[in-house]
Amino acid sequence: MSKVLIKTSLGDITVRLYDETPLHRDNFIKLSKEGYYNGTLFHRVIKNFMIQGGDPESKGAAAGVQLGTGGPGYTVPAEFVYPQYFHKKGALAAARQSDQVNPEKKSSGSQFYIVTGEVYSAGKLTQMEKQLEQRMLQSIFDSLVMENRDKILQLRRNRDQSGIASIQEQLQKETFAKAEKKGKPKFTDAQREAYTTVGGTPFLDNDYTVFGEVEDGMDIIDTIQNVATGAGDRPIDDVVMIEVKVIE
């Protein structure tokens, strides 16, 4: 088990890295030992959501400069260990580019965030499960459409309305069959317990790699999430990572 101390201008945070996400663990340790994070900022802070840092371009950045695109020039393959590790408050996770340009959900080589989130009612979580199910169905259907793209385009060119209706019905049946095999998205008892007590960001689960959690310093996380921010959610007064070092 590895631990890293993040000394900030507002206090110290200790994070524990998961052995089940070795690529992210080793990368975070490597960068910490190199002093890569020293002097960088928590450049994006959104109350009741998360605090984000790790952009090398934030080091010494002038006030008002938009940040968030910097990195070491590589990405880290996704390592989802779900539902064991999820976005509860205090979760340490890797930032990444959007699905449109990053369908494999590869993580940024250096940028990370710590979840603050909010507390959810049991009813809201049940509602989210239904939304996740709809999202899963849409995702399966869209992938089937792409697989049959040429056939669909040919039917459209031929203005074959009957053929289009037939293939749509076929793909819908295949969608439900695939979804049934996968099973309905459902929060575990551990997730429900966490999200209804300490809180978190359940809508990010299984979409971004969670590779650790805060072991000490949640009060500092709360202090940071409450700072005043300006354009791009950047804190008006810089929150600096003075030193990030491996302590265990």
List key phrases describing it:
alpha+beta; two-stranded antiparallel sheet
Tell me about this structure.
This protein has helices at residues 22-34, 122-147, 149-157, 161-182, 189-195, 218-225, and strands spanning 2-8, 11-17, 42-46, 50-53, 75-76, 91-94, 107-108, 112-115, 210-216, 241-246. The radius of gyration is 21 Å and the shape is elongated. Helix content is 34%, strand content 19%. The model has no long low-confidence stretch (mean pLDDT 96). The protein is of the alpha+beta class and 248 residues long. The strands form two sheets. Strands 3-4-8-6-9-2-1-10 form an eight-stranded antiparallel β-sheet. Strands 5-7 form a two-stranded antiparallel sheet. The protein is built from six helices and ten strands.
> What's the arrangement of strands in the largest beta sheet?
3-4-8-6-9-2-1-10
Treating each run of at least 4 consecutive H or I residues as one helix, how many helices? Answer: 6
Structural class, from secondary structure content? alpha+beta
Uncertain parts? none
| CA distance, first residue to last residue | 8 Å
Using the alpha-carbon principal axes, give the shape.
elongated
Percent helix range: 25-40%
Main beta sheet: 8 strands, antiparallel
| H and E order | EEHEEEEEEHHHHEHE
Q: What is the radius of gyration?
A: 21 Å
Strand content: 15-25%
Number of strands: 10
The average pLDDT is: 96
